[in-house]
Write a structure and sequence with these properties.
Layout lengths: L16 H12 L8 E5 L5 H13 L3 E6 L4 E6 L2 H6 L8 E6 L18 E3 L2 E3 L6 E5 L6 H14 L3 E3 L17 H14 L3 E4 L6 H7 L2 E4 L7 H8 L5 E4 L6 H13 L5 E5 L17 H8 L4 E3 L1 H5 L2 H14 L3 E5 L17 H17 L5
Parallel strand pairs: 7-8, 7-14, 8-9, 9-10, 10-11, 11-12, 12-13, 13-14
Antiparallel strand pairs: 1-3, 1-4, 2-3, 5-6
The structure holds phosphoenolpyruvate and manganese (II) ion.
């Protein structure tokens, strides 16, 4: 294991273990369980008016979680609901409105943060309205040759982030399970060789520190969206997290899973729609394209689409990818393999490098029509 996770309390915008600790203590106390209100400050509200709200909350035994957006500040009030509701917040200087929060997720909600979250990964902004970020690579790292051939090709075609898994969640325990730390070392080499950050899945809370010490983004896969111990563990390390939608999860359940990560102090969560299980068996899964605009309305988090795992068949990848760009996703993630017939995992949905190149051209055109560059 290369490095242990740093948990100091030097404040960073997107990863703040101290904020996580204060939220945990506020939500954990007997009085405050399940209660909250969001206090939205006016544009340009002064520091003194923000401090006055936070002091008032402290004086009634509650806590204020301050989130500074590009244009306005929002304060999450955590504490006893009835005490908080008795205060005439809208009469305070600089307060625009006070909104009771009824949903079980709070910090990931649009009410809590009106501005979009933008997550920077080695200078690549994920979640910006004028960018469509493409992640591509093999489903699993199988060898140095396979990884490097794929990385070189996807980079040349315009992908900005590399994917490649070291640990694979397989339906059969006898199937290829991934190369483990050897794969992470190869990804580390590929990152330098092709100047691409990489994302890798983490399956087990015991592997979070290991994957976090190598990868730029950790991914929680569909089978683990409801693994709350794993969500807490990735919430306690500083790297961004791609959170795939559970196979049968509703959008609210998915947002609650993101809230688990936020609550621990990690505010860098990227939602990935990868298809859900329905009565339809013609495709591997049913891509829920409606989830993208719904999430954009309900939450400030970036949203990506994985057309490969959604369709599960090579011929479906391009049309679903174009749909993702058209519906307003912030990016996509695509499986590519130089020899799909030889792939140890998911060969039937992997694109050949030349197919990926063609796909990039059509997706870029759709994204450009909506003012986004790839
Ligand atoms: C993957 O991206 O390789 C993967 C296993 O996806 P999912 O968790 O969506 O099945
Ligand atoms: Mn896969």
């Amino acid at each position: 294991m290369r490095a242990s996770i740093q948990r100091d309390c030097t404040s960073q915008a997107a990863f703040d273990p101290c904020v996580g600790a204060s939220i945990r203590s506020a939500l954990g106390s007997r009085r405050s369980r399940g209660t909250s209100m969001i206090i939205v400050m006016k544009r340009g509200a002064t520091r003194a008016s923000i401090d006055a709200v936070v002091s008032k909350l402290a004086s009634i035994g509650s806590e204020g979680h301050v989130s500074e957006g590009q244009f306005r500040t929002v304060i999450g009030a955590l504490g006893d609901r009835s005490t908080i509701h008795q205060v005439p917040w809208e009469a305070f200087e600089g307060v625009q409105r006070a909104v009771p929060v009824l949903d079980s997720f709070k910090f990931v909600s649009r009410e809590f943060q009106p501005d979009d979250s933008v997550i920077e990964v080695r200078g690549i902004p994920i979640g910006r309205a004028d960018e469509f970020v493409v992640v591509a690579g093999p489903c699993a790292v199988e060898s140095r040759d396979q990884l490097f051939r794929t990385a070189e090709a996807v980079r040349r075609s315009g992908a900005r982030v590399l994917r490649g898994d070291a640990f694979k969640p397989r339906t059969s325990p006898y199937s290829f399970q991934g190369l483990g730390e050897d794969a992470l070392r190869l990804l580390d080499e590929a990152r330098s060789a092709f100047d691409m950050p990489f994302v890798a899945e983490v399956l087990d809370p015991r592997h979070v520190a290991l994957v976090s010490s190598y990868a730029d983004i950790l991914r929680v896969g569909t089978r683990n969206m409801s693994n709350y111990t794993l969500l807490q563990e990735v919430g306690r390390q500083p790297k961004p997290v791609q959170l795939k939608r559970g196979l049968t999860a509703t959008i609210k359940e998915w947002l609650n899973a993101a809230e688990y990560i936020f609550k621990e102090g990690n505010h860098q969560v990227i939602m990935v729609e990868r298809g859900i299980r329905t009565f339809e068996t013609a495709a591997r899964n049913t891509l829920d394209i409606t989830a993208v605009p719904l999430l954009k309305r309900m939450s400030h988090l970036p949203v990506m689409v994985d057309p490969s795992h959604a369709g599960g068949r090579r011929h479906l990848v391009a049309p679903l990818a174009r749909a993702a760009a058209a519906v307003g996703a912030d990016g996509m993630m695509v499986d590519v393999h130089p020899e799909p017939d030889e792939a140890q995992v998911d060969g039937e949905q992997a694109l050949l490098p030349e197919e990926f190149d063609e796909l990039m051209q059509s997706v870029s055109a759709v994204a450009a029509a909506l003012g986004r560059s790839t």
